[in-house]
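Record 1 of the preview.
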Amino acid sequence: MMSILLARRWLQTLAVIHIIGGLLLPVMVYTSLATPYFTHLKSAFPDSNPESLRFLIGVFGPTVASWGLLFFYAIGKAFESRTMKDWWFLISAVLIWSVIDTVFSIANNVFAHFYLNGLVLVLFMVPLLLTRKQFNHT
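->
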């Protein structure tokens, strides 16, 4: 079992990482840090325009940041009331993103997302699963 406070801080830290990462993504796509990722995308989409890919990934950054901000807020509310409805809301938010993103990525030969999404899924699910019984308040 994980303490409710540790789980909340863990999840909020992940949300902040999404906010910061999402805000930095439009800049990061033009750095050498992104080269391995774009090499992978080029192999999945050999006829693609590299600048179009940079634009699409970069413009996705604010969406990631927004999701992180909303998830940060949802964590705060869910961990205040601790109802099963709140727990299922958090679980659903994580699963909707991870399952659809991963399946869509694999269907399009972007296997890097399988590993990245898998890691992030575990990081989100562990504290949620370990605190499930503490979300019984009505």
